[in-house]
Specification:
This protein has 152 residues and is mostly beta strands. Helix content is 11%, strand content 47%. β1 and β2 form a beta hairpin. The radius of gyration is 15 Å and the shape is globular. The protein starts with a strand and ends with a helix.
């Protein structure tokens, strides 16, 4: 049995709490208006210039099929590295940094017709809250061509 633990940044989208491995986080910043790109899916909010690097922004609420985020100054962009690519994730708010033992991460239940399951890495309970852990590679897999093109 492994006693390894990992740290996650947790954040909210709607009333749900999600977590991303802290090692993937490059920066957390306040909302910045984006430059929209033509012919991209609705969850691709556009791009921002982050100190000379073009970073595509993904609206997680729209990606999870809950409609576009009505952005306010309190929203945050969580900049993550996926391989060599930087991507911004639009979320409602950052909640916490949590340490989770590998053994505490539960598998995602196999539920019919749930398109989210493919990009969920697991579930964990933190202080009586359920946190859904995201697999960033899988979350953005179908958008990779668009992300690469928009960051070029």
């Amino acid at each position: 049995m492994s006693n390894e633990s990992r740290q996650f940044i947790t954040f909210t989208v709607d009333s749900e709490e999600y977590g991303v491995d802290i090692m993937a986080i490059r920066e957390i910043k306040g909302w910045t208006p984006t430059t929209a790109l033509p012919e991209t899916p609705p969850h691709m909010r556009g791009v921002i210039d982050l100190r000379g690097t073009i970073v595509p922004i993904v609206d997680l609420r729209a990606r999870f099929h809950h409609g576009l985020t009505e952005v306010t100054p309190t929203h945050v962009i969580i900049v993550v590295a996926i391989g060599a690519m930087m991507v911004g994730l639009l979320a409602d708010a950052v909640v916490d940094i949590v340490s989770v033992a590998d053994t505490a991460i539960q598998p995602v239940p196999d539920m019919e017709n749930n398109g989210h399951v493919g990009f969920l890495a697991g579930l964990v309970t933190v202080e009586d809250r359920m946190v859904v852990l995201l697999d960033l590679d899988s979350l953005l897999e179908r958008d990779k061509a668009i992300l690469i093109q928009s960051a070029a």
